[in-house]
Design a protein that fits this description.
mainly alpha; Growth Hormone, Chain: A; 2 domains; 22 helices; globular
Length: 423
């Protein structure tokens, strides 16, 4: 019973942070409209979110066991509760930047703590995999909820007002409730006792640098960087694309983006079944080609659309439904290559590898959002999304080199593990 309560607390934490992390595209749409911020200026919000995740994850990993995982979670929840309260009380673009800075710092603490706690309370590999899948399921529920919760407050706010900021009172309450749940949940003493010993920042840096200069790892982090660049380019700017290019109302533009989140969820669940039976490399190639095909099929349908005051879900442009389905093909790639990479390394190197992954993923997300926002603002939205074909093409090439390096590293175990669904 005690373990179930701990698990529920961890799952609720991830749900809360999924809502906050994935609201950045919606918030960009709103700050452009209400604070007069340019698209390239608004794109920095992605950096305020992602860079602290990379920096803090790297910096705290060595001493977090001494602080205690539950304490770290409580600190993180206190930070985001205060940041959510500040949003409606001090409405400004600066407050918005500080919000995402806070969310990034807090999520770094949460990610290390939640992942470490799951590893400590799981009895075996199968139970750990079950916990991780459920955790990711709660995260996807949070992603889907974010679009509808924000859409509701945007839709109900008076035109031109900052009434949409009232959503942050609800989020602050959710954070506070989660804080109390964690505070009142008894974590077993043995969880703290078996926490891994700190090695120090210097040792972490040395381990990461040694790993990075391996050809296999270098190819992998470039591929991961490019994938996250593509995903964040689409996910962050899709609400603005729906609003300005497809001429949908702001609330509907946000809610339509939930199709993308739903496609990602469905794609990952489906891949979990398919990868037990299929070789990872052909499947990854099919997914990348499918992403390019969705871009080439959907974007030509976005030209010549005129504003319709009576637009709704029944008569929205076809592209509004078609383009977000890129998530179906996008979804299996990131967990797929991560699984192959981690399975290629001894367990003692997983921590350093995860650190590299977090850093390059954060850099990819920030780069993708900034480049897309700049092109969106200085050229147009269609060209900004057509531009994703460049990193998509490079990912296809990098997968070839990744497969070659995996084979050179003796990856027969990796392939069999993936086919058994251990990813």
């Amino acid at each position: 019973m005690k373990q179930q309560r701990i698990l529920f607390a961890l799952f609720l934490i991830y749900f809360v942070f999924a809502v906050l992390l994935n609201s950045v595209g919606t918030v960009i749409l709103q700050v452009i409209a209400h604070y007069g911020v340019s698209k390239s200026g608004a794109s920095v919000l992605e950096g305020f979110k992602d860079l602290p995740i990379a920096i803090v994850s790297f910096a705290v990993a060595s001493f977090l066991p001494r602080l205690g995982y539950r304490r770290a979670m409580l600190v993180a929840l206190a930070i985001v509760t205060a940041a959510c309260v500040a949003m409606p009380l001090l409405p400004s673009f600066l407050t918005t930047k500080l919000l995402f800075l806070s969310v990034g710092v807090a999520f770094a603490l949460v990610k290390v703590s939640v992942y470490s706690t799951l590893g400590l309370i799981a009895a075996d590999r199968r139970q750990h995999a079950s916990y991780m899948n459920t955790l990711e399921g709660f995260f996807m529920l949070g992603v889907l909820s974010a679009y509808w919760v924000f859409g509701y407050f945007i839709d109900s706010a008076p035109s031109g007002s900052n009434g949409w900021l009232q959503v942050y009172w609800l989020l602050a309450l959710l954070c506070a409730v989660t804080f109390l749940l964690v505070l009142l949940t008894p974590f077993d003493a043995e969880v703290a006792l078996v926490a891994p010993a700190a090695q120090g920042v210097g040792a972490d840096v040395a381990a990461m640098l040694r790993l990075f200069f391996k050809p296999l790892v270098c190819v992998f982090v470039i591929t991961a960087f490019l994938y996250v660049l593509i995903e964040q380019s689409v996910g962050t700017w899709l609400p603005t694309f729906n609003n300005e290019i497809l001429m949908l109302p702001p609330a509907m533009s946000v809610q339509m983006t939930s199709i993308f989140a739903g496609a990602l969820a469905l794609g990952r669940l489906s891949a979990g079944v398919l990868m037990r039976r299929l070789n990872w490399y052909p499947m990854m190639n099919v997914c990348v080609v499918g992403m390019a095909a969705m871009v080439l099929l959907a974007l030509p349908l976005t030209h010549g659309i005129v504003a319709d005051p009576a637009v709704g879900w029944s008569n929205a442009p076809v592209a509004a439904f078609l383009f977000p389905l890129i998530g179906l093909f996008m979804a299996p790639i990131y967990p797929g290559i991560n699984s192959v990479m981690l399975s290629s390394l001894p367990v003692r190197q997983h921590s350093a590898m995860t650190g590299l992954l977090v850093i390059f993923s954060a850099l990819g997300g920030t780069t993708g959002s900034f480049v897309t926002g700049y092109v969106f603002g200085h050229v147009n939205g269609q060209f900004a999304f057509y531009l994703t074909l460049v990193p998509i093409s490079i990912v296809l090439i990098m997968l070839h080199f990744f497969k070659r390096e995996v084979d050179r590293s003796g990856s027969e175990f990796v392939v069999s593990a993936i086919m058994r669904g251990q990813h």
